[in-house]
Specification:
Layout (H helix, E strand, L loop, with lengths): L2 E5 L3 H12 L3 E5 L3 H10 L16 E3 L2 H5 L4 E4 L6 H8 L8 E4 L12 H8 L4 E6 L4 H4 L5 E6 L3 H11 L4 E6 L2 H23 L4 H22 L3 H4 L2 H12 L4 H10 L4 H8 L4 H15 L5 H11 L4 H9 L15
Helix pairs in contact: 4-5, 8-9, 8-11, 8-12, 8-14, 9-11, 12-13, 14-15, 15-16
Length: 337
């Protein structure tokens, strides 16, 4: 049994707390909002974010960050990506040297273009950092529907330790040393999922969705490799796997926001209706900036940015993508003659 704290009581943090508790660990869940903690204690259910999913009595809840961090073998950082840096700043005072932190959110910081693991290392240089991601909606994980993810770390032993804590018959965990590839894949898929949702909102079909997924992973892969990641990672769970589930699932907040935009709502109206953090909106600008920095062509990402931030009509964006100059599908392939 290990002592583990989940920092962040959203749907994903709650679902992972259930996984860890199922595995026999001593689990604490922290939230900055005292009323949220009181509700969790009283109802043993995350009523607003994961309704209908019971939380075992053994899971402890607290709004005291020092208590949550004290004497823990692992801290699971599960706050939305936009709060990663501010939460790390709050954690600094109580952090022990060598503390293992696994980030489970997905996103690129808008102003710095840093991944979440990079933010943690910048703010908490004494910590050891790992990543856990893959095609894994909290709504299904909390209900113990079979799910597969990847634990990433530069150190093999660290990745295997995270794997051992989380893995069970419903939650299979692989390991990977390619932390950068995992984070780029799992973050940028949210941007492509916005485009997939827009296509659904416009009434387009499966052909369009398949095109967005395949061309989307091509864009993500080009950028990730240019940044130093491994192409194999993008063909795995944290690349194409995560992209498929986020573009297609009814649970995807990014797809839902895109759907509402496709139906004519503004970005702000869509985000207000979703009522949860839409990570893709915050990663879209960074994805575009990274593409420009590494000289990678990313037409889907560019169009999503135009729709989100320039009020460009989604239908016109699709038309412009369809009428782009003729190209070979894969420039790495050569002709016999």
């Amino acid at each position: 049994m290990s002592k583990v704290s989940v920092i962040g009581a959203g749907s994903w943090g709650t679902a992972l707390a259930i996984v860890l508790n199922d595995n026999g660990h001593d689990v604490t869940v922290w939230s900055i909002m005292e009323d949220e903690i009181e509700s969790l204690k009283k109802n043993r259910e995350n009523v607003s974010k994961l309704p209908g999913v019971h939380i075992d009595e053994k899971v402890h809840f607290t709004a005291d960050l020092k208590e949550a961090m004290e004497d823990k073998e692992l801290l699971v950082l599960a706050v939305p990506s936009i709060f990663t840096r501010s939460t790390c700043k709050s954690m600094k005072e109580n952090l022990k040297d060598g503390q293992l932190i696994v980030t489970v959110a997905k996103g690129i910081e808008e102003d710095t273009n840093l991944t979440l693991a990079e933010i943690i290392k910048e703010e908490l240089p004494k910590a050891e950092v790992a990543v856990l991601c893959g095609p894994s909606h909290a709504e299904e994980v909390g209900r113990r529907i079979p799910t597969t993810v990847v634990a990433g770390s530069k150190k093999k032993a660290t990745a295997e330790f995270v794997q051992s804590l989380f893995m069970n018959e419903n939650f299979r965990v692989y390991t990977s040393p390619d932390v950068l590839g995992m984070e780029i894949g799992s973050s940028l898929k949210n941007v492509i999922a916005l485009a997939a949702g827009m296509a659904d909102g416009l009434g387009y079909g499966d052909n369009t969705k398949a095109a967005l997924i395949t061309r989307g992973i091509a864009e993500i892969g080009r950028l990730a490799v240019a940044m130093g990641a491994k192409v194999e990672t993008l063909s795995g769970l944290t690349g194409i796997g995560d992209l498929i589930v986020t573009c297609a699932s009814v649970h995807s907040r990014n797809r839902k926001a895109g759907y509402l935009i496709g139906q004519g709502k503004t970005m702000k109206e869509a985000m207000d209706e979703v009522q949860m953090v839409v990570e893709g909106v915050y990663s879209a600008k960074s994805a575009k900036q990274l593409g420009e920095k590494y000289n990678v062509t990313m037409p889907l990402v560019e169009m999503v940015n135009r729709v989100l931030f320039e009020d460009f009509p989604a239908k016109e964006a699709v038309r412009e993508l369809m009428l782009r100059d003729k190209r070979i599908e894969n420039s790495e392939l050569s002709w016999d003659e």
